[in-house]
Write the structure tokens for this entry.
Amino acid sequence: MTSLRIEASRPYYCVIDNGISGNVGDYAITASVNATKACIVTDTNVAPLYAQRVIHSLESIKIEAIMVVLPAGEEAKSFDNYQLIISKLATCHFTKDDIIVSLGGGCVGDVATYVAATYMRGIHLIQVPTTLLAMVDSSIGGKCGINLAEGKNLVGTIYQPDYVLTDPLLLKSLPDEQFASGCAEMIKCGLISGQELFELVSTPFTNDSPGLVELISACVKVKAHVIALDEMDMNYRMVLNLGHTFGHAFEKISGYMILHGNAVACGTIMAAYVARYETDDFDEALIDDLRLTFAMFGLPVTIKDCVGREISVLELLDAVAMDKKFRNNQLNLVVPMSVGDVRVIPLTFYQLESFLRKILDSDAI
Ligand SMILES: NC(=O)c1ccc[n+]([C@@H]2O[C@H](COP(=O)([O-])OP(=O)(O)OC[C@H]3O[C@@H](n4cnc5c(N)ncnc54)[C@H](O)[C@@H]3O)[C@@H](O)[C@H]2O)c1
């Protein structure tokens, strides 16, 4: 078992242990001694696999459990589902002593956390992440939100849970491509952290590797360190966006049909190319290292493999211009210089266009 304290404005523990999802009740009563009810928010894939053990654990300490089962995937993060959950809480007379249990991947986690942040201006929350991506990334740091027809994650806030309970055994049922998607975020953590973690996450591992608790813990530590320095995303937290500016653009271009981690993998290689053109001290070996590492997990390393077709510079520029980090005609792009050296470089729209022309025209990616 690893127990990591996340130093946020409301500090909390992320406990990582095989089987911990069967002990949610014990943590619930520690989080709120007066809790009488818990609402498990989950999705159609996860509910039949794991909801019963969480219900049993809550009921064994006399917390009544109700459940809201959302559609799997991005559909979960809709305004309608947000409203469905808060109406259910109100109808069942949930008070500030009661608890939301988020049981699922990043989609369930984002909407459940937004509910917890806003119902009665904030109620107790326990996150039980069930995807690798949620374990190493989305369950940590409190970012949450829902999608609008106009764009992804346009409504949201930052709200920290009481506990994150991470049970790597739940990954045994996760489809391979979803596991690989989480690996992309772990490789990102390695790039930010340095050689030791990069080597660990570059060595093949699977959902039943014995060292998974330690590997997940090491990645959570990287995110926790960044959160401790900049919980509210004012500056340094931006490094976690490595690979995401181009990644979000690839997701948008594909009509959100590709997995987040696949987009981040290819987006990281794009960012490395920008660093190669823009800076003098770029590590020339990095691009090949990244290609090898991402490819080892079956992640795409070319735009065509990522979005399924060639794309034009204008199409990519148009999609990148939607990035939240694009303000006043300037993009703060996070780029990897070498393993352990990640920087933010400001680019004007015209500089970005010129880099994209060079990169796409050279057929490098
Ligand atoms: N809040 C943050 O800081 C943050 C960070 C990164 C990503 N996100 C968000 O996370 C979302 C993506 O999350 P995700 O990749 O976990 O996707 P997801 O929640 O859609 O889960 C992926 C799929 O796996 C299924 N699944 C989940 N756990 C399973 C298990 N143990 N066994 C079998 N199937 C299982 C789900 O039902 C779903 O079909 C995006 O909406 C993204 O915006 C948020």
